[in-house]
Amino acid sequence: MAAEPVIVVGGGIGGLAAALALARAGRDVRVLEQAPEFREIGAGIQLGPNVFKMFARLGLTERVSRIAWFPDRLVLMDCITGQEVTRIGLGDDFLAKFKFPYAVIHRADLHQAILAACRESGRIALETSQKVTGFKASGSGVSVTLEGGATVAGAALIGCDGLWSTVRAQVVKDGNPRVSGHIAYRAVLATDEVPERLRVGSMVIWAGEKTHLVHYPLRNGEITNLVAVFHSNRYEEGWDSYGDPAELHERFAGTCDEVRAMLQKIEEWRMWVLCDREPIKEWSKGRVTLLGDAAHPMLQYLAQGACMAVEDAVCLADKVVERQGDYAAAFRDYQTQRYLRTGRVQLMARVYGEVYHASGVIRELRNMWLGARSQADGLEGMAWLYGGPDFA
After folding, report:
1. Angle formed by the axes of helices 13-24 and 107-120, to 10°?
2. Three-state SS for 182?
3. From CA 29, how far away is CA 242, in angstroms rounded?
4. E strand or H helix at 204, and its extent?
5. 290: Cβ contacts below 8 Å, ≥ 6 apart
6. Mean pLDDT across 165-174
7. Crossing angle of helices 375-386 and 49-58, rounded to 10°
8. Residue pair 347/279 in contact by the 8 Å Cβ criterion
9. DSSP letter at 296?
10. CB atoms within 10 A of CB 56
11. Cβ-Cβ contacts under 8 Å for 134 (sequence gap 6 or more)
12. Quick one: CA dihedral 69, 70, 76, 77, positive or negative?
C-alpha cells in the first residue's frame, strides 16, 4: 500500500515551495488551498541572494530569472530633504561576495513559477476550495478536518496558512498577531506615468519621519511597484482593503516634491495593517509543523517574508530525508535549525522599521552614519542575512 501523502495547508509561496521541496525529496504531497484558485494578491516583492540559493536547490533559478527584474543598486533617500543618504551597488562585487543576485519580482509571477513546477511534478496533488478547520494527530499520522466535516488523512501536516494560521492556533495557541501600528499602501503604476526624473532601474527607499516610500520596476520595467508605509491606529484584517488616498497624502504632506509627485500619480491603493508575532523556539508538535508566516511572521522592512518561507521549505525537506521519513524527528530538527535565524529576521525587521521612520536628531544621526558607509561596509552589513542560510 502506498504511503499517505504529506498534507500542506495553504497554497501560497511558502506552501507551494514546501510541496515542491518535498516532492523533489521523493515524498507525495497534497496541498489544500481554501481559495477557489491558486493565486497571490499584492504586487512586488524583493528576492535576496539567500533565496536565489534556494531556487537553485529547487530547480527554479531559470524560471524566476526570466521574469524577475535585477536592479542596479539599492538606494536610500531622505524623504524630507530629497537627498541621497547611501547606496549599495548590486554588480560584480555584490555577486562576488554573495554568489547569487538580488532581484525584485511581482508576487503573482513568483507564485505562478512555483505553481508551474508543482504541476509538472507527479507527486503533488493541488486542491482548491478546501478550508481546513482543525486536525488530529497520532504517532502514525494526521487527520485534517475540512469545512463541512470531511476529513483528509496524511502522514504529516505542514501549516503554511499565514499570519492567521488555523494550524498554529492549535499547535502554539498564542492568540492574535501583534499589531505594529504601521500601515502599508501598495499600488502599481505604468512606468511611463512615473515622473521621468524618478524612472530608475534601482530599488529606492525614501525614508521619512514615521513614513517611507519604496519604488522599483517590475515586469521588464513596464510597471513600477510602490509601497507607502506610515504610522496609524487604523486596523483591518487582511491584505485586500482599499486605502484612503486622503489619509495617505496627509501623512506624506511634509515630504519632498519627488515623493509627493510619485504618490499623486496613484488614485487607488490597496492597504494592509502590518503585523508580526514574537519569535518562538517551538512551532512543531509531533507530525505537525509550521512554515513561513504561520511559524514566524515578520514585518516587511527586511523584505524577507517570502525568502524565509522558501528557506524553511528546503530545510524541512532536507530534514525529512535525513530522518528517513521520521516526521516528528525531522520537524524537531527543522525548527531547531531555523528558529534563531528567523527570530533574528523578525526582530531586525522591527529595528529597520525604526531606522526608516526616524525623526529629529535620530534621523540626522541615521543619515550621518549610513552616509559614511563604503560599498564594502554595506555589503558586510548584509552578510548575516544574504550570506545564509547555513544549511545550503
Report:
1. 30
2. strand
3. 36
4. strand 203-207
5. 158, 159, 160, 165, 167, 168, 171, 172, 283, 284
6. 97
7. 40
8. yes
9. S
10. 15
11. 144, 145, 166, 170
12. negative
Q: What is the pTM of this model?
A: 0.96
CB of 168 within 8 A of CB of 71? no
Cell 512606468 sits on residue: 191
Task: Please determine, for residue 242, whether its predicted confidence score (pLDDT) is greater than 80.
Answer: no
Q: Above pLDDT 70, what percent of the chain?
A: 97
> 238: pLDDT confidence band, cut at 50, 70 and 90?
very low
Residue with cell 502506498: 2
Q: Kindly report the backbone phi and psi dihedral angles of residue 91, in degrees, each rounded to the nearest multiple of 5, phi listed first.
A: -90, -135
Amino acid in position 75: V
The percent helix, strand, coil of the chain (3-state, each to 5) is 40, 25, 35
Q: Between 49-58 and 13-24, two packed helices, what is the crossing angle to 10 degrees?
A: 40
Residue with cell 504561520: 294
Q: Where are the alpha helices (DSSP H) in the chain?
A: 13-24, 49-58, 61-67, 92-98, 107-120, 166-171, 245-251, 257-263, 305-322, 327-356, 360-371, 375-386
Side chain identity at residue 102, one-letter code: Y
Q: What is the mean pLDDT of residues 276-280?
A: 97
Summarize pLDDT for 16-72 with one digit per residue, the tens: 999 999 999 999 999 999 999 998 877 899 999 999 999 999 999 999 999 999 999
- Residue for cell digits 518562538? 280
**Residue 159 CB-half CA count within 13 A:** 29
> Which residue(s) pair with 179 in the sheet?
275
Position 109 pLDDT exceeds 90: yes
Who contacts 186 (Cβ-Cβ below 8 Å, separation ≥6)? 42, 43, 225, 226, 227, 228, 269, 270, 271, 272
What does the alpha-carbon distance between residue 11 and residue 35 come to, in Å, rounded to a whole number? 9
How far apart are alpha carbons 387 and 346 in whole angstroms? 17
219 membership: H or E segment, kind and range: none
**Among the listed ranges 1-10, 233-242, 282-291, 332-341, which one has the minimum average pLDDT value?**
233-242
Distance of CA 8 to the CA centre of its chain: 18
Binned at pLDDT 50, 70 and 90, residue 270 comes out as confident
Give residue 372's identity as a one-letter amino acid code: A
